[in-house]
Write a structure and sequence with these properties.
Blueprint: H1 2-23, E1 27-32, E2 35-39, H2 45-63, E3 74-80, E4 86-87, E5 97-99, E6 107-111, E7 114-121, E8 125-128
Parallel strand pairs: 2-3
Antiparallel strand pairs: 1-2, 3-7, 4-6, 5-6, 7-8
Pfam families: DUF943
Protein name: DUF943 family protein
């Protein structure tokens, strides 16, 4: 009896996990210049790009992102917020931290976890990496 229900349970749990990842909306935790710190960002690259395309006008209106240069060039970096802000101890162990100088708190860094890089330049046009 249990041997037959175990594969069904595994399939159900996998389906529930994937469904929860799709249903939970992206949470923008903070914006620092052209860096967006997010939670619940889509895993698949095509879903990430679709999220950007669906929200880029709103992001420009609300946060002023991206900051477009006079020649049209811009970059936007989307990072996972992860465990939140951490202090920079100034050691080699902190080399995996991305720090924001626009914060006056001692905990002003996050662990580097890049999710998507969006940009535009004259040479390459629009790109997603």
């Amino acid at each position: 009896m249990y041997k037959k229900s175990l594969p069904g349970l595994i399939v159900f749990l996998l389906f529930a996990y994937i469904s929860s990842k799709i249903i939970i909306p992206v949470e923008i935790v903070a914006v620092h210049d052209d860096v967006l710190l997010v939670r619940h960002f889509p895993f698949l690259k095509n879903r990430q790009i679709a999220w950007w395309e669906a929200n880029k006008k709103w992001l420009k209106e609300k946060y002023g992102v991206p900051h477009i240069q006079s020649d049209g060039y811009y970059n936007v970096f989307i990072q996972n917020f992860g465990e939140g802000y951490q202090p920079d101890h100034g050691t080699d162990e902190d080399s995996d931290l991305l720090c924001f100088n626009d914060m006056v708190f001692s905990s002003h860094c996050i662990k580097k976890d890049p999710l998507l890089w969006i940009g535009w330049s004259k040479n390459s046009g629009q790109f997603y990496r």
